[in-house]
């Protein structure tokens, strides 16, 4: 019984081993390279595959997905003899598992060395400034060379990127100083531009302000001149009307010799009020002088003794009417108002001619 049990266990183990050697499951996006007696036989796709046990053997399991490999920084000398450190990143994909297995022993190491040599060749023809600003051209050159060289290895290089370009520390300090100088220069230029624009705007504002002030002064002077002119016209018209009113009142009152003598007597105290008149002698013949005073003053004033004008003088409007200035016609309106005032002031007064009175003889009545 023990021997049968051992034999049964051996048979089970053999069956399990046979199944393991016969059935091969390949994951998705993988490819298995199968060898028979050490020679390439076939490539197994993803899924369940049957092998001949103990004859067929899976030599390599190749990953068909795109892979990313980052290489450490490599020292590269530029055209101007400066050493810079450049680290790269390679994106590649295995397209032919058989070529990747049998054409190259270690394709990742081969890609790394090929990248380093190609990078030194490309950067060696550039100076530092061009190297720092020509990442796209360097990437394109690297990708072209790597894709051409790795094609026979069953590998396609999809993309090459320069992860970093590090110049020497002394060069970094010089670059920082240059960058600061450039920024300070731009700041000074911008400040000068700002001050220039501010000065221009200030000058333009001052110019506009002076222009507006001058226009305001001009308008105010014009308005003041027009107001003074109209005030002068009103004063002239008022004086003319006052003279006409007094003249008309004298004619309406019909003054005689007694009134004139009375007015003369009222003026005598005022004549004596002067500070220089210390002594004032009244002549003894003042009575006789008073008799002929009325006729003398009356004749001198041109007022007839027995007749006064009965015709009233046209006084004109009691309130002077000045046309309101409007727009550009102000001067014309004012000139018309002046002409009207002058015509009213110069209008002749119609009076009855007074009879001619001869000077009276001394002590006698006046002769007509």
UniProtKB/TrEMBL annotation:
Subcellular localization: Membrane
Main subcellular location of this protein, as a coarse class: membrane
Region annotation Disordered: where it falls in the sequence: 304-368
GO cellular component terms attached to this protein's record: plasma membrane; side of membrane
Gene3D superfamilies found in the cross-reference section: Band 7 domain
Coiled coil: none
Keywords: Hydrolase, Membrane, Protease, Transmembrane, Transmembrane helix
The name this protein goes by in its record: Regulator of protease activity HflC, stomatin/prohibitin superfamily
Species in which this protein is naturally found: Nocardioides alpinus
């Amino acid at each position: 019984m023990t021997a049968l049990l051992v034999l049964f266990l051996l048979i089970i183990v053999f069956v399990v081993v046979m199944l393991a050697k016969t059935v091969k499951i390949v994951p998705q996006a993988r490819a298995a390279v199968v060898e028979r007696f050490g020679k390439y036989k076939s490539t197994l796709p993803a899924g369940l595959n049957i092998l001949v046990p103990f004859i067929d053997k899976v030599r390599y399991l190749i990953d068909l997905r795109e892979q990313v490999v980052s290489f450490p920084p490599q020292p590269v000398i530029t055209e101007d003899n400066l050493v810079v450190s450049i680290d790269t990143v390679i994106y590649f994909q295995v397209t032919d598992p058989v070529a990747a297995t049998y054409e190259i022993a270690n394709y990742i190491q081969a890609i790394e060395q090929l990248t380093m040599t190609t990078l030194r060749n490309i950067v060696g023809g550039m100076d530092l400034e061009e190297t720092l600003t020509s990442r796209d051209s360097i990437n394109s050159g690297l990708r072209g060379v790597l894709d051409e060289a790795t094609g026979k290895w069953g590998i396609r290089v999809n993309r090459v990127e320069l992860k970093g370009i590090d110049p020497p520390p002394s060069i970094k300090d010089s670059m920082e100083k240059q960058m600061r100088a450039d920024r300070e220069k731009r700041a000074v230029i911008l400040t000068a531009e700002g001050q220039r624009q501010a000065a221009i705007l200030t000058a333009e504002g001052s110019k506009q302000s002076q222009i507006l002030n001058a226009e305001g002064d001009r308008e105010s002077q014009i308005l003041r001149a027009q107001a003074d002119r109209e005030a002068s016209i009103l004063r002239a018209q008022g004086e003319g009307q006052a003279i006409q009113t007094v003249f008309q009142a004298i004619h309406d009152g019909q003054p005689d010799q007694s009134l004139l003598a009375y007015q003369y007597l009222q003026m005598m105290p005022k004549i004596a009020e002067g500070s220089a008149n210390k002594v004032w002698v009244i002549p003894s013949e003042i009575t006789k002088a008073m008799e002929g005073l009325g006729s003398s003053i009356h004749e001198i004033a041109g007022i007839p003794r027995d007749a006064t004008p009965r015709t009233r003088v046209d006084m004109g409007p009691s309130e002077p009417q000045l046309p309101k200035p409007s727009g550009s016609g102000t001067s014309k309106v004012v000139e018309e108002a002046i002409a009207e005032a002058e015509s009213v002031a110069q209008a002749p007064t119609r009076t009855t001619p007074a009879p001619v009175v001869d000077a009276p003889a001394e002590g006698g009545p006046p002769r007509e």
